[in-house]
Amino acid sequence: MESLRRLFVSSLAPLSASSLPDEDTQGGRVKPSAMTTPKPFALLALPNEIIQQVLGHLRPLDLVELSLTCHSLRSHAVNDLFWARFVQENLPVPQSSPSPCHTWRELYTAHYPYWFLPRHKIWFADKATVGNGLAGQLIFARYDSRLGCIEAYRLVAEIGRDYKAELWEWNPTVLIHKFSPKIRLFLDNPVIKLNLGDLSATRRLHQEVLMQREADQRLHGIRSMLFLSRAIPNELQDSTMSLWPPSIVPATNRVRNESPTMFKGEGHKPQHADQICETNFRLRKWSEFRSQGGRSSVRMGEDVLTFSTLPSDCYTPSAEKPYQGIWVGDYASHGCEFLLLTQRSPEEIQEQDLVIPGSPSTYLYGDSDPNEDDSDAEVTPIETQDPPGCSGRLEAIKLTGDPHVPRGEHTWIAEDIGKGGLIRVADERNFKGARIVKSWSHIAASGFRDDRYIRSQLILISHDSLAMYWEDFGHVSFYTRVNIDDYLNLES
């Protein structure tokens, strides 16, 4: 793209040096014959169709700069076909018109530079708005064409009322609780809502955008402001920094999520367009109470939430990695929690991944441990090759957490879901035909103290359903895939 821009700038030069006035070699004056109108720019000499094709490779800010050069190029730069493409490439669901705006350019400008919110769709925070801060939250962002607004809502899940239990035929001392979560967007209170016109007075990139509230909430309640962030370059990151997302979460960029100034300094916010981090943003929240007349107010409890998105290739399932995705799990008294499941092939696994941090020792699961009782273990059947999609390492990372194991931490790891980690193939009624593989599960005391990994068994029921047998607890919990598209629909 940079080479294309250089070529584009060079094309703005006159056609040749002959269009410049000649200097009189006798007296150093310009010859009268040379005082002619300069020839047109090389770009403008091209047919309109070619100009449109060239401009089609430029980005929005390039077209804005181009429109400032002359009237002719401005007429090309404001072509609504360009701006329709800029809007559509940020929306998972294509739009048929720019309504309620008159033009696509008007619509794009109205929400610039926050179009990355619906483009990335999934965002998870380092803190919860209320309750336990370590729980975090998961939000889905989308564009509402009916109102012309960008909005984001929390994804919540509740354990269904048909919460039934049964005994496990393979081990009758273990009780299996069925899991039928009720997943929905919490539409009563948007986390983000950018209406048309909200950004008109805050065009500077470092300014914060106040989220508007309903009329009955203006006197008191929780208020929030949305603002952009700057990424920390990889070469400047180190283990002493508090970054979001954590290193175990796949991410294109990482930003700071702790600041003594509450991120009010200019160094935390972009000053130029090329400094905008489109994979992270922040939300400043506080409680505000106003008098009935609105003349005085009290502001308290200010905090800043840092959000990050996920690269789509780490949660999109494929034939080789069918278990990847966003999942919801049953965590008993802690309720439902959302997870990111990543599946890595044997070639993608690095040497440092072979040691499970916090496990009883540094041995691999298949090695013997003299201090461990293997009473639940069975002889691993012999498999000549891995079944399709059942190979490599499967990791479950919490996108939302609880007081014991918070968001951004592993909840369990299966080092090898192929033949190397296979314990058995279930023949009991509860999980008949499911492959059961070795795994480690992450536990901790309240406040994420004394965390460690314990032995467990991952039950691969299907590509959309998993279960975990926590050996030390005598408990089986379930996990269900979240269908992301269900919550991008405006009717959900």
Q: Can you give me a brief rundown of this structure?
A:
With 492 residues, the protein is mostly beta strands. It has helices spanning 2-11, 48-55, 60-67, 71-77, 80-88, 104-111, 116-120, and strands spanning 122-125, 137-144, 149-158, 165-167, 175-177, 182-185, 192-194, 209-210, 220-228, 243-244, 255-256, 280-290, 297-309, 325-330, 336-344, 393-398, 410-414, 422-425, 435-445, 449-462, 465-470, 475-481.
Mean pLDDT, to the nearest integer, reads 84
The total of helices stands at 7
Query: Structural class from helices and strands?
Result: mainly beta
From the spread of the alpha carbons, the general shape counts as globular
Largest sheet: 9 strands, antiparallel
Name a few traits of the molecule.
mainly beta; eight-stranded antiparallel beta barrel
Describe this protein's structure:
- The protein is mainly beta.
- It has 7 helices and 22 strands.
- 11% of the residues lie in helices and 29% in strands.
- The two termini are 39 Å apart.
- The longest helix is centred in the N-terminal third of the chain and has 10 residues, at 2-11.
Helix-strand blueprint:
Layout: H1 2-11, H2 48-55, H3 60-67, H4 71-77, H5 80-88, H6 104-111, H7 116-120, E1 122-125, E2 137-144, E3 149-158, E4 165-167, E5 175-177, E6 182-185, E7 192-194, E8 209-210, E9 220-228, E10 243-244, E11 255-256, E12 280-290, E13 297-309, E14 325-330, E15 336-344, E16 393-398, E17 410-414, E18 422-425, E19 435-445, E20 449-462, E21 465-470, E22 475-481
Parallel strand pairs: 5-22
Antiparallel strand pairs: 1-2, 1-13, 2-3, 3-6, 3-7, 4-5, 8-9, 9-12, 10-11, 12-13, 14-15, 14-22, 15-16, 16-17, 17-19, 18-19, 19-20, 20-21, 21-22
Helix pairs in contact: 3-4, 5-6
